[in-house]
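Review this fold:
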Amino acid sequence: MADTELLKYARIRDDYELQQRANAALLVQALYWVANPPDMTLEQRLMRDWVVDHPLEPIELMTAYVANMPEVAAASTLLQGGGVDTSEVLDYSIKYIVEAKWNVVANNQFGAAA
């Protein structure tokens, strides 16, 4: 059976190193906003503070956004035996999607309905 793009995305999402890099990007962004606070919604501030208080703990929705970014998929290689190599994924790509999706994830995870 040939791997599909959806299977590739699932394997990327489950890759431990990519998860850790996404978590690190969350922490870097949160710490930047602690030092240089922009205008933020309550949900954005709650997420920033949660990330700082729980360094390197995953936020699954953010990991999913990172794993489903086309640039991440293009730089990842499926391996024999079911693994995936994400070592060619650029840090810039991960940091970009973390910043771009911060509002969406914050509203989902820390909004009134969450």
